[in-house]
Amino acid sequence: MSGLSRSKSPMGALVVVAVLAVGVIAPYFLSRYQIGLATQILIFGMLAMSIDILVGFTGRTSLGHGAIFGTSTYVVLYCVTQAGMSPYLAVLLGIMSATVLAAIFALLAVRTNGVYFLLLTLALGMIVWGICLRWTQVTGGENGLRGDIRPKALADYKDFYWFILALAAMVTFGIRRFVNSPFGLTLRGIRDSDSRMRSLGYNVPLHLFIGFTMSGFFAGVAGAVYAFFNNFVSPSTVALTQSVESLLMAIIGGVGTLYGSFIGASALIALQNLVSSHTERWQSVLGITFTLIMIFAPEGIVGKFRALRAKYSAKH
Amino acid sequence: MDRRQFLQSTALGLAAAGTGLQPMRAMAQGEPIRIGLMAPLTGVIASGGKEMVEGTQFWFEKINYQIAGRKVELIIEDDASNPDTALQKARRLVEQNNVHFLTGNLLANTGLAVANYVKGTGTPYFIPIIAADELTQRGRIPNVIRTAGYSGSAFPRPLADWALKQGYKRIATISQDYTFGHEQCGGFSQVFTEGGGTIVQQFWHPLNTADFSPYLGQIADLKIDAIFVMETGADATRFTQQFNSFGLKGKIPLLGAMNMTDQSVIRTMGAEVEGIISAAHFAEGADIAATKDFVDAYTKKYEKIPSLYGFSMYSGMMWVSRAIEKLGGKVEDKAALLDAVLKTELADSPLGKPVKLDAYGNPIYDVYIRKVTKRADGKFWNVPVETYPAVSQFWKYDPETFMKEPAFSRTYQGVKKS
Question: How do residues B180-237 score in pLDDT, each as one tens digit?
Fold first, then answer.
C-alpha cells in the first residue's frame, strides 16, 4: 500500500513538517477573516478525514457523519448554555455522545454494505436531524442554540486557530496510526473482500463496528470544536447537506489519502466563499467544478497528484 | 538635492506633519459607507430574499447611493436560508469587507445566528425582517435594532382585541410549529383569553404541510366563532385554498397573522383570499398619500405590488440613512450610530406617519386591522378597516413584569386560566 511505504520516506516527513510550519506562521500574514476560514477548513478537514476512514480504508460510504458531528456540537452547546457546565467538560461529553451515537449507528449498519450502507446511514442521520428540529425544549428547534461558549483561553481568534491546528495535527496523526495499524489493515482487507476476511477467520462485523465507532469519535472531536468556532448550532449542522458536503470534501481531496481531506475542505470552503461573493449562482459553479473534478481526477486532487508522480517516476 | 528643493520638501513635510490629522479625516470621509446586506437568494425562501434586495436597492437608488455626501457601497451576500452560511457571510462582511453595519436576513434562525456573532464584534445590525421576540426583549443585544421591523407577538394582540369586540367568544388556532408561530399565536391567545375569550384548541403542524385536512376536518366540530391562522409562504397558499375547498370560507371568519395575507402570498391567488382579516403596521391598500406613492412607484419598477419584505427593507434602510444624515455621515463611531438610530423618528416613510423606536430597539406602530379586498383591476390587496394607535411590543403590560414571564413556546401560550 502506498500509504505505508510513503510514511517511511524522508520526503513525506519533510513535506509534513513544511506544511505544519506554514500553518503555524500563517496567522502573521493572513487577515482575521482568512484565519477564520483556515480554522473552518481544519475543522471540516478533520470531519472529512474521519469519513475517509470508512470510505477510503473500509469501503463503506457513510451519509450519517454530519449527524454524528452535529450531535457533538449540540451537546457541547447544550451543556454550556443550558446546563451551565464548563466548556472543557462539555467537550468531553460532546465527544462521548458522538461516539455512543456512532456505536449505535454501527450496530445497525455493519451488516450491510454498498448502497444499503449508504441508505441506512442516511436514514439514521435524518432521524437525528428530525429530533434536533422537533425537540424544541432541548434543541431550540429551528432556531437552534447559541451563546458565547468558547473558553477564555481561546477567545482570541489566532490562539483558537493555533489550538485547532495542533488538534488537527494530533487527529491526523491518530487517524494515520489507526489506519496503518494491524487493525487498520484488517479494515482494508474488508474493503477489498469481506468474504475472504471472513474465511480467514476475522470477525468482520466486529471490526466494522470498531472502525465505525472510531470514525465517529473523530467526527465528534471535530464537532465539539465546531461548537467553539461558531458559538451556535441549528438543525442545518446535523442535516443531510452537512454529511454530503463533508463526504464531497473527502472525495475531492482523494479517498484513502487522509491528507486529501484538508485539500478537499480547502477547495470546497474556498470556492463557497469566493464564488458566492461574485454571483448568486454560486451553487451552479460549485456543481460544474465538482463534475469536472470527477471527470478528470476521479481519484481526487491528492490521488491524481500521487498517480501523476508515480507515472513520472516510472518513466525516469 | 539643491537648497531650494530641500527647503521646498522640508516645508511640505512640516505642513503635512502639522496638519497630519486633517488629510486622514478627509480620507475617511471620502471612503464609501459600506453596508452588508444578507438575504436568502437561494433556498426555500429565495423569492422573499429577492424582494428584500429589491426593497433595499429601491431606497438607495432613490437617494442615488449617497448619504450625507458619502457614497454608499452595498455589498449583497446570499445567506442560502441557512444559519451556518449566514454566520460565515456575516464574518466575511465584517472581517473582510469591513462593513460599517449589517442588515437583512429573513429566517429567524439566520438572524439569531448573526445576532449572536455581532454581540461579540459590536457591529451594528439592523433587522427589518427578523421578528424573533427575544432580540428586542429578553435577549436584547444593544447593537441589534429592529428598524422598520416588528416583533412576532406584537400585531396579533390588537387582532385579538378586535376579535373580542366582534363578539367572538370561542376561537381555535392553527399554526406552523416553530418559534415565529409560537410567538404570534402566543400574542393572540394571551390577549384573547385575558379579555374573556376561550382558546378552544391549538393545532401545530410542521412547516411545509401539504395536507391540512386532518385539522380542517376537526374545526367543523369545534363550534368556534372564528379561527386564528398563522402560516407563511407556501403553507399559507395551501391552507387558504384548502380552507376554501372544505367549504369553510364564509362560515368561519378567518383571522390571519400578517404573513398569511402578505403580497408575497396573495399576489398569485384568486377569490379565495378575499375577506381574510389580519393585523399589521403596513397595508398596501391604505388610503394614505405616502403609501400610495410608494406602492405605485414600486409596482411600476418591479411589476408587482410590494410585499412586506420590500417595504420593510426600504423603510429600514431609510431609517438608518436618516440617522447617518444626522451624524453628518460619520458611520465609523458605532456607539454614536446606534444612538442616532434609536433616537431617530422616521417621519417620511411609506407609512405616512412618524414612527419611533422604544427603549428596546423595537418600533412602535399604529397597527391596522386589514381586510383582503379586490381592486378594480382584479388584484387583491390589504385595506385597513380599523387602526390601533401606538402599539407597543409589550401591549399594555409593563415591560419589566412582562419579561419575567417565560418566552412563548408550544407549551407556554400565555393563556389565562379561568
Answer: 899 999 999 999 999 999 999 999 988 888 999 999 989 888 999 999 999 988 899 9
- In angstroms, what separates the C-alpha of B95 from chain A's closest C-alpha? 5
- Which positions in chain B have a beta carbon within 8 angstroms of at least one beta carbon in chain A? 41-42, 75, 77-78, 82-84, 87-89, 91-92, 95-96, 107-109, 112-113, 116-117, 119-120, 132, 177-179, 206-207, 409-411
Specify the DSSP element, H or E, that contains B125.
strand B125-126
Closest-CA residue of B relative to A155 is: B120
Write the pLDDT tens digit of every residue in B238-256: 999 999 999 999 899 999 9
CA B379 to chain centroid: 24
Helices B289-302 + B308-326 axis angle, to 10: 110
